[in-house]
């Protein structure tokens, strides 16, 4: 099957290079029994890809069993995967087949494999290597012949480094890795996919979609789509149903975009109207003023978050090293204020307000000096650093300080590890 026929059969819309590379790799490995690991953010279509792999394989006439490892409670996941015997535990009133048994001869899709508990990972490794397993409560060895397709939205190798995922299981799963690109990395595909969804929902709900303005089209492309194709589909459905027979402009579209745009530092920042929409005396109209006000509110919230992150970083970096290297106003706040209440002027450019003062005569290690020098160089520029640039700097410094350990870096920055992963992707940091 060639690429075009494959795309048409499974509804994979797009002409981007990234998508073509993925499809070529899928076609190459689909008709084998090799284990495939699908890696990508939530909403990129890992489930559709897994179904496509099964549908063009020689196992296509057998069962495909889909298992969401992250949705099964830890206490019963072993029983769900491998089955159990009658009386194996309280409530086991009869024997039951597990997913590997049901998938015998076909394909098993292990979604969110990174969320599998440690005790189950050992048994997964065995069934992947030899096809052998035991039902819970049984000593009888059973075998199964399945093709395994696994998926994750996490960095499995990082989980190995954090000792939450077995290294041997990682190598067993990572036979062929297919990285599914997020929607923001293939912007040329956004409009064609959106039109496909709009056509489907217009037919489903007997509605008419009037189209959208050029500015709205640009907004669709520039938006980051944190939920990827799943989010794009939801937005298309909402527009067809809730904005029925309306021509979509940026103001209407903006109501349904809840994530972060490519440009601009704040989430959901609106794109301001052009000059033709201003009033005749050159001032902004009521609509523009409303958009500007919303943008300022979002910007204020981001600055507040940034102050907290900056304060936390300063505390973790300097509090036990050499507080005298900091300006007096920040020293006082580090020592006497709650971290979340820091009043740090991130817009200041003078040395008196935010630049690092010359060090007092003290024993300072080379590592400490390099951290403080980096801090001083970053904030000594004549131009006010943007919020995103400041945020990126803090993340880089935290990761450097903790030798790339993301858990420790996120704790030092005062953000969740999940947020840190999102930020790393946003700023393309490794």
From TrEMBL:
Segments forming domain Sigma-54 factor interaction: 12-241
Keywords from the named record: ATP-binding, DNA-binding, Nucleotide-binding, Transcription, Transcription regulation
InterPro entries xref list: AAA+_ATPase, AAA_lid_NorR, Homeodomain-like_sf, HTH_Fis, P-loop_NTPase, Sigma_54_int, Sigma_54_int_dom_ATP-bd_2, Sigma_54_int_dom_CS
Pfam families: AAA_lid_14 (PF25601), HTH_8 (PF02954), Sigma54_activat (PF00158)
SUPFAM superfamilies: Homeodomain-like, P-loop containing nucleoside triphosphate hydrolases
Keyword Secreted: no
Protein name: Sigma-54-dependent Fis family transcriptional regulator
Species whose genome carries this gene: Fodinibius salsisoli
């Amino acid at each position: 099957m060639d690429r075009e026929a494959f795309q048409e059969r499974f509804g994979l819309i797009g002409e981007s290079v990234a998508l073509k590379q993925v499809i070529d790799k899928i076609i190459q490995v689909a008709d084998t029994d090799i284990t495939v690991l699908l890696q990508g953010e939530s909403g990129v279509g890992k489930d559709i890809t897994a179904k496509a792999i099964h549908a063009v394989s020689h196992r296509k006439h057998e069962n495909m069993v889909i298992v969401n490892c992250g949705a099964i409670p830890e206490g019963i996941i072993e029983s769900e995967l491998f089955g159990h015997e009658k009386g194996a535990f309280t409530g086991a009133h009869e024997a039951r087949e597990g997913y590997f048994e049901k998938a015998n001869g076909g394909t098993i899709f292990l979604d969110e494999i990174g969320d599998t508990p440690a005790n189950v990972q050992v048994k997964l490794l065995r069934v992947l290597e030899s096809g052998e397993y035991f039902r819970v409560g049984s000593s009888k060895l059973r075998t199964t012949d399945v093709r395994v397709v696994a998926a994750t939205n996490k960095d499995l190798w990082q989980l190995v480094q954090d000792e939450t995922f077995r290294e041997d299981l990682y190598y067993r799963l990572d036979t062929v890795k297919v990285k599914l690109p997020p929607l923001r990395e293939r912007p040329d595909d956004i409009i064609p996919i959106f039109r496909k969804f709009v056509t489907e929902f217009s037919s489903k709900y007997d509605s008419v979609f009037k189209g959208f303005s050029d500015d709205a089209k640009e907004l669709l492309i520039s938006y980051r789509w944190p939920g990827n194709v799943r989010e794009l589909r939801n937005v298309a459905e909402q527009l067809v149903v809730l904005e029925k027979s309306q021509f979509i402009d940026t103001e209407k579209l903006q109501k349904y975009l809840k994530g972060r745009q490519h440009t601009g530092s704040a989430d959901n920042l609106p794109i301001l109207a052009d000059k033709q929409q201003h009033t005749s005396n050159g001032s902004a109209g009521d609509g523009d003023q409303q958009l500007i006000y919303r943008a300022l509110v979002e910007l204020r919230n981001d600055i507040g978050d940034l102050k907290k992150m900056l304060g936390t970083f300063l505390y973790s970096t300097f509090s036990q090293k050499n507080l005298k290297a900091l300006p007096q106003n920040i020293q006082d706040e580090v020592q006497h204020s709650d971290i979340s209440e820091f009043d740090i002027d991130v817009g200041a450019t003078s040395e008196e307000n935010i630049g690092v003062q010359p060090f007092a005569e003290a024993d300072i290690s080379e590592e400490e000096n390099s951290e403080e020098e980096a801090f001083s160089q970053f904030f000594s520029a004549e131009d006010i650093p943007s919020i995103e640039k400041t945020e990126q700097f803090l993340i880089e410094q935290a990761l450097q300080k903790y030798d790339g350990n993301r858990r420790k870096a996120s704790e030092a920055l005062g953000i969740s590890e999940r947020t840190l992963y999102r930020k790393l992707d946003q700023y393309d940091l490794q």
